[in-house]
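hey so i finally got around to running both of the ones u sent me last week. sorry it took forever, my laptop kept dying halfway thru and i had to restart like 3 times lol. anyway pasting them below in the order u listed, first the sequence line then the structure token line for each. didnt double check formatting much so if smth looks off just lmk and ill redo it

first one:
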Amino acid sequence: MSEVMKPISQMRKIKSTIGINLLRFFIGCSILFIAIFLFFIFSKGVKVLSLEFLIGYPEDGMTKGGIFPAIFGTFCLTLLAIVIALPLGVLAAIFLSEYAKPEWLVKYIRLAINTLAGVPSIVFGLFGLAVFVVAFDFGASILAGGFTLAVLILPIIINTSEEAIKAVPRDFREASLGLGATKRETIVKIVVPTALPSILTGAIISVGRAAGETAPIIFTAATFYMIRLPSSVYDECMALPFHIYALMTEGTHPEFQVPIAYGTAIVLLVLVLTINLIAILMRYNLRRKRKW
């Protein structure tokens, strides 16, 4: 019997070795492509980076000066989006995981949410233009852009929040109910606080996506050039991703504006990577501290 099984075992080892080597090859290729990408971006944009570039205002049609209005506009749009989407997403996740019935209807709702998460971002931009800019008469403004980005990241927050709530052990619920707490009290005081760290991790990841999106704000919020900060949520604003797009496609002085575009790309890249790194570190620390 052992002689018969020996060739099979050797074949499995060969297949396993081939699979591991292929995996290493593809990981190496991915790292190489990322390194080339980063080198290309940094080599073209690092020469314009300075403190003045980060805190200064654009000058001479964005042929010189800084990008502080774009950083500020990105911050405003992202903050408004997460303020709108986070409570709605968490409440929707609680409803789907704890209250929604019948099961077949819940499956269709989840399918709709997952489908919405895969919709191209330009479609959200057209939706925001039709609904928030025109129908609600917000105009092209921070308010319209923030609502559009909120709709964009809402499916992500719902999915991550629901998974976080489902990960809470059922014993926690049963212990709380056994002590006389109502279902609402159990959810508010036990389930949500236990799932909150993972919910916040998903929210941070969605912030990174909102900060890096261009298409949804083209029609709803972004403008190419401002020499001042917006004074209200009904004003247009500059934004880092749209600023890069505009400099590369609509600039009239590419010899000055292209390096600024690459410098802006570095700032946006560092911003998004930092947000994702915070989410990874938070998830790692929370998993280490978890006692269940």
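and the second one:
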Amino acid sequence: MRAVAILAWTLLFVGLAAANMHASPPNVLMIVSDDQAWTDYGFMGHPRIQTPNLDRLARESAVFPRGYVPMSLCRPSLATIITGLYPHQHGTAGNDPRTNRTSGTPRPRNEDYLRLNRACIARFEALQSLPRLLGEHGYASLQTGKWWEGSYAGGGFTQGMTHGDPSRGGRHGDAGLEIGREGVQPILDFIGEHRETPWFVWYAPMLPHSPHNPPERLLAKYRGDGISEHIAAYHAMCELFDETCGALLDALKAHDLERNTLVVYVADNGWIQNPESPQFAARSKRSPYEGGIRTPIMLRWPDQIAPARYDDTLVSSIDLFPTIAAATGATPRAKLPGIDLLSVCAADGKCDRDAVFGEIYEHDMPDIDDPVSGLLFRWIIEGNWKLIAPVTAGVPPELYDLAADPREEHNLADEHPQVVARLSSRLDQWWPVSK
């Protein structure tokens, strides 16, 4: 009887400990790479780029190599991550409102631009944001790096680096863009100051984003072997970004916060370096191709998420908001289009959804109140089929078998019209568009 009693008390203790573990909400560190192709990591098989810290994170995470962002441009993509909505839902369908750029008036003094951008920011601030939702559940939050939507406070962060004042250079991050390139001390300070409060950190540095000006010690590693200076510089920037991620992961360990911190990784959009210039090559940023929209997505939460690699599971950045909400016990006030990836991890990568969707726009928004005005493509990936559907009349669709043709070199639309029709119908069910 005594042994039975001891066993019962032991089971009760373990059960209470597990309940308390779940009752204690995790910190959340969100790492967002800026302009980095899905291939450009050691753990994704790149032969030259060295990313030892992100490789370590991958070994300790649930890794989804087939992650996607709906839009391959930074402002709409970041807005999707922070709201959990597609661009046509949150309304930020480009980086800037379209104004007369030939007038010679810079954006900070262009009254038309300022008026339209203020309207975009006001609309964004009326939406439910992830830091605002977490704040309602006792979280402190810190914004660093890229941030297009005015001041950090308007996005619901309790602290931040970005002031958002156009008269002082505010557009896409201002002072926040120092993070990473000038070290990560503001984040280290924030973590040290919030030992008793759950926190959310937004680390979205302008890395490896241009200007590609890495320190010489890194650039020297990638020169040679006939590699162009532009590619060498980009590769070195990827490693510089990795070093900053390592500093943050080391800080979690130093503060004994690893087990109670959910680390989320995603890139805002892809980038294929043009070997002849500092610019990006075709079929990368701003395009509907894999080089623009694909990104690995990683989730690390020791004891809660088992390390694994789910090579066949399609996931999207729209899934990050509901995933973080589920992990922290926060309930969004409205149903979101994404899914909770914690449940996907618990089911060994299996989920009911078999497709992901996206939309590609012009860089500047022709009409800030009508996303379709700047829409160029819709796209869908179902299993290994990928359909790119232009909205411009007379432009034919493109269909690719990503398993057989990962570089999207062979358009199979004419050979499989029934697949094109079926996927086109699914696009219309997701978001019907007429233009």
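quick thing i noticed on the 2nd:
The first strand starts at residue 27 and ends at 33.
anyway thats it, ttyl
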